[in-house]
Amino acid sequence: MSAAEVRSLLCAAADVSDQARDVLLKLYDPTGEALLPIGANIPPNTNADGEQYRLVIKRANYVPQRPQEVKQVVEELNAVAAVVQNVKQIKQRVDDIKQEASEIQHGGLAHTPADDISSHAQTRPAIRRVRQVANLGIEAPLVHNFPPEVTENLKHPTFDVWQWEDSEMVGLVEQMFQEFGLIDEFNIEREKLHRFLQCARSSYNKNPFHNFRHCFCVTQMMYGLLHVTGVHEKLNKMEKLVLLTACIGHDLDHPGFNNAYQINANTELALIYNDVSPLENHHAAVLFTILKSPETNILANLSDADYKEVRKQIIQCILATDMAKHGDILARFKQYSEAGFNFEDPAQRQLLLQVITKCSDISNEVRPKEVSEPWVDSLLEEFFTQSDVEKAQGLPTAPFMDRQKVTKASAQVGFIGFVMIPLFELVAKVLPNMEEPVIQPIRKALDYYKGLLEKQSS
Ligand SMILES: [Zn+2]
């Protein structure tokens, strides 16, 4: 049925003429809270008792006498317009996803033995794009001459991440390789490093949140944390290479929809990785696909044994960013910390690298408010889009992603209080000098959002 036919049907049920252009139809889900799009995508509810939709009819040309009523009608009209807009966006996203699925079907599965998962994975559009970029060569100047105050600020969590173009962020990451002495130690050709970073950059999607600037933020925060805590002096060059490369690769080709969506929608990624951290596994796989190409393989001059070790630890760090593992990682790190963290123990050092990657990934609130606040809007935008798509597809939704249930303040108070502070306070027991440059800004952010929340509820 077309949307017009569905509308006609609903009009007939409500005994109003579907020719009347001033009739507004609103269809609510069984909870009575969410508006449903009137069209071909209404999820079926025929078989469930007590799961009926509620249809509300309004006359748009009704002229109310009192200002309060005018306001109410205008608000309702605006709500309808917003729903129409949302439905359009959702439809576009669904079409995009279908398009991607069909590309996979035609580009990969049709010509690939079904049991050959690795060649199947390599035919995914993202990985095809990686290959094309690897052949592009150099598109931006190889050497950026950043003034000394920039390279100094780069070592601090207060660094302003918003004022740089993509090519400049690539240059700043090159600066980190240089400063850590990794270029000489691992015999990395500068052009290759540049090509690797360009390639990684273009393998990030233009999501509201999970984009290349987020990748840069995470990498820069890791670099900043290492410097303010002085732990960079305790880590060897291989561990710094692991951290830098893991941060650069940690969200590669993120589709803007989280693991819960991948699993519930039974996407290609969930299928390939059997519902186990589909996104994080994919990020790591894209990273090592880039590194497989000789043009972009910055690890080419490592010995076989070193490569194996570096690869293992990079994968560990990227997989550790799945928040489903948060409790487990925190508990293990807590055990080490309570027994007195032992830098001589390889297992403890490896876990430390994973924890530093995790901290960096969720570190926006360590930054000054002007720098961090726009990220909250971006993340909510990404969440809301996912939640809208889930509703349209009849999939389960999470309350923290629902535009009708979450505000910026409520989201932040919960996340900072229950996730960030326990993590960073634990890390502060192992790494020195966290209080002033790292923990205090987080507490300040918590106070700010608590204030905002109080203002909202009063
Ligand atoms: Zn991330």
Report on the architecture of this protein.
With 458 residues, the protein is mainly alpha-helical. The chain has two domains: 94 residues, no CATH class; 341 residues, Catalytic domain of cyclic nucleotide phosphodiesterase 4b2b, CATH 1.10.1300.10. It has 19 helices and three strands. Strands 2-1-3 form a three-stranded antiparallel beta sheet, with helices on one face. A hairpin with a 6-residue loop joins strand 1 and strand 2. The longest helix is centred in the N-terminal third of the chain and has 41 residues. The protein is elongated, with a radius of gyration of 25 Å. About 7% of the residues have low confidence. Zinc ion binds next to helix 9.
Which features does this protein show?
binds zinc ion, 2 domains, about 60% helix, about 450 residues, single chain, mainly alpha, 19 helices, about 5% strand, three-stranded antiparallel sheet, Catalytic domain of cyclic nucleotide phosphodiesterase 4b2b
